[in-house]
Structure formats: C-alpha cells, structure tokens
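Fill-in record for Phosphomannomutase.
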Amino acid sequence: MSAAGHERIAQARAWMRQDPDPETRDELAGIITRAASGDATALADLDDRFGARLEFGTAGLRGALAAGSNRMNRVLVAQAAAGFAAFLVERAGAGRRPTVVIGYDGRKNSRTFATDSAELFAGAGLRTILLPRLLPTPVLAFAVRHLGADAGVMVTASHNPPNDNGYKVYLGGADEGAQIVSPSDAEIAAHIERVAALGDITALPRSAEFETADESVVDAYIRATAAVAPAPEAAAGLRWVYTAMHGVGWETFSRVVAHAGYPAPRTVDAQLLPDPSFRTVAFPNPEEPGAMELSFARARAVGAQLIIANDPDADRLAVAIPDQMATGGWRRLTGNEIGLLLGWRAARAAQGTPGASLACSLVSSPGLGAIAEAYGLDFHETLTGFKWISRAPGIVYGYEEALGYLVNPETVRDKDGISSAVALLGMAADARSRGVTIADLLDELTAEIGAFASGQVSIRVEDVSLIGRIMAALRQSPPAAVGDTPIDSAEDLLQAAPGSPRGDVLRYRLSDGSRVIVRPSGTEPKLKVYIDARAVTTADAQRQVAALETGVRALLDALS
C-alpha cells in the first residue's frame, strides 16, 4: 500500500476515535479493516469520504448521512456548531451574550444533530433555545425574529433524497432572520476549519444548560400565519386535498387552517406523518415525477377542487388543479404559475404603497416584472435563493420557481409553504365566491399581463465535475442558437457589473424574445436550464418553450 493509503487510513482512524455515533463508527471501522487489507474499493471509499470536506456556504451544509468529513454526521455537525458559536461570539462583541434558536425536522438524525448543537452552543456560553419538537423550517425562521435571537439553525435537507440531511443558518438583528449571505458564509467556514484543525470534538465544551422553547412560539406562528388570509364565507364549501409528503407540515398547517377558518382537507394519510424513509416516493419533492400520484388519486376519489402539498420541511408549496386534458384528470401547477398568482394577489394589495416591491430569482418568470409594472410597484431580480430574495428593498412579496414563496415578509424572511398555502386557499375561496376556479384566475391574469410560459431541463449527475465541464464548454464556445432559434445576446453573470446579481449563471436572450438560463443547482448534483417565453396566447408561448426544450437537450447531449 502507498504512503498516501496509510495516511488516509490513519486519518479515518483519528476521525473514528472522536465519533460519538456508534452507527457511523461501526460503518467506518469495517471500511478501514477492508482498506488495511488491501481492498482497493474500500480505500477509494475512504478517499471519497476524507479527501474533502462538505463545504459550508450560504446554504449551510447538506449531504449524505455517513462517516467522513465529506458526509453529514455528528462529528461534522459538532465542528460546524462550535465554529458557528465562535463566529457569533466574535460578531456580538465583548460583554454581549448571543442568543441562538435551533429547529429540526423529521429526517434521520435531525433531533440528534439539533441536540448536539444545543449542547455545544450552550457550552460556548451562548443563550441557546431549542424548539419544542420537530417543526417546519418556517417556524424556525419565524422564531429567530419572534425571540429576538442573533441567529438560528435549522436541521433539515428539505426535499433532498432520504439519506441526506443538512444544517441551514439564519442571522437575526440587521439581517432580520434571513439566511446568511457573503461574507458571513466565509467567516463561519473559517471558524469551522479552525475547530476541525483541533482534531478532537470530544475536547469541545458542552452543556445541558440550554432552554427548550414553550408552545407560545408555535402558537404565535400559527396566529400570524392564519392572519395572512382569514377564510371568507365562500370557503365553507371548498373541498381540497392535502399531503405533507412524509414531512413535518401537517401538525402545524392543520392548526393554521383551523385558526384561519378554512374547512379541514381530505388528507393523503400514507404521507401525512413524518417518515424519514419517505416510503411512498422515490424523491420527497413534489416537483419530481410521480411524487403527487397519491394526492391525485385521493382528489379523484373525493371530488376535490384543489390539491395542496408541502415538501418535507414545509418551506415549499405545490398546487394541483383539475384538468381534463391531463393524464388522470389533474395537473400540478408550475412554480411560476403559483408564483405569478400569488404575486398578482400581493400587487393588488400593495398598489399605491410607496417603495413597495415584488422580487423573484432571475430564473423565475419575467411575468412578475410585468405584474409589478402593471400595478406601479418596484421590481427586483436576484440570484437564486431566499437569502437574496428576502433582502430585496421594499419587498412585499417574493418567489422562486422551485415552489418557494414569501407572502408575509414582516413575519418570516424566508420561503414558507404554510403561509403561501393559506394565501392560495384565500384566492381559491374568493374565486369560488365569483363562481370561478384557479384555472380561471390564471386566464384572467393572462388577459391582464400577457401569456408567459416556462419550462426546465435538469440533468442529474453522479460525477459533479461534469457540471463544471459543461459550464466551461458553454463559456469557451458560446452557442449561436438554441434549436432553430438564434441567440441575440449572451451574459455570463460571473462577469456581472457591480450591483447586479453575480454568480455561476449563463443567460441567453433569443431572437423571438424568449430566454434561456443555465446554472448548477446549489443543493443537488444537477445542472438546471430554465426556459421562458412570452406570446399573445398561452398555447403559442407553450409551443415556444417546447421547441426550446428540444434544442436545449440536443445542446447538452452534445456537451456531455
């Protein structure tokens, strides 16, 4: 065995000695034994686990649960917690004790990671508040502001595959409970690296002297969220279906629905309660093909008028409506369709308010800009992620096409699948009072601002380096057309002017007025391509999008 192999085994043994988790210790011990006996596969596995660290960025940490510095586990979380605590102490300044609040969802190890963090924060001298039980991410985002905390941590991997978990970080004070942005991410990462360099998490001070929040925090969230759209009289006859996608949304959402006065939904019972195995879906993401099939079946059985779904940590909202042209009679609305409906709602409420703005990520539909213009509101395009959207000046509403919506920025500075669901229920009930449906509302909006259509091409990869190679190839040899449609202009947002959104994004504007944007996913091993078109009719816009999707697939096939 090479010297590098012996060094890797020694590194793994040092990691194992500090690991408090018997499951990952045993897992790693078996790999080390095989590697030490000359098993090349086991040694390659150690290289993958220890050849890098999971990178802490503006999205925090997210990865597969397993032993190693390049995985999510109790050692990595302890290092992250201790590093974040050091950052908060430094940020607070001498003589001030920071407060941090911690939430967790129903994924495997979420409670353990949250408790470890609470003990380490308390051991570092912080006032530490653990939420009372597993709860949706929006409750944690709310709690940061409600409790006047300096920071928040949410243990969740949102809609990622079942064996993933993550560590999402929020800042209070001037950041108003929003997720971190640069340079805080780099400063926190540097503190984490210093902790990791010590080499032994067992030496980190821990304390059980942390607080557990009482139910008043959850009650306050429920009251504030129900107030987003109290049920009108017409809501009484609304028949709808709800699924929590095996996540933590139902207990909180059901209380919000009752408090707001809406009729209780028919539920998808097989997906209603937290289940870390997500046994009825391949991916616990309502955007994924097949994820809402049980919801469709339930809706057909009860004659529903609407389906509402949350993702596992309830920060995203999916909506489906009856559609006789769709297979099975139901169609899931796109994130842009929902986003524009909720933006229309917000624009009507904010019309005439000085400085009020609508905001969306630059890959979301340009239709939101058209709504803002129609109602005399400001409009902001940001990089993807609510860490950026929530910081838009004067924001009254923000969204991103990946099913994320911010409808109550004075309460929660993050996407919130529960408050946005309440807002959508309010729209459905108001429409019902006029004898129309959500589909009719989409037609009314099109008549007002024009027809917008969107599409997306995603490539999931095993080797993430392929994404970098494709982006590099597009930069080195920019395409002249997408399919048969010429490209009029190309923008590389890595070279964006100061004050404009800057990131690893390529944006192409085409001769027919359509738009194609290419970017790597920030949370999954995917390359994503976003397509937007505007036309006189919805059918024409959809035809443009379909043609561009074919062209995009051909282009990516040639590059990969």
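KEY FINDING: The CA atoms of residues 418 and 501 lie 28 Å apart.
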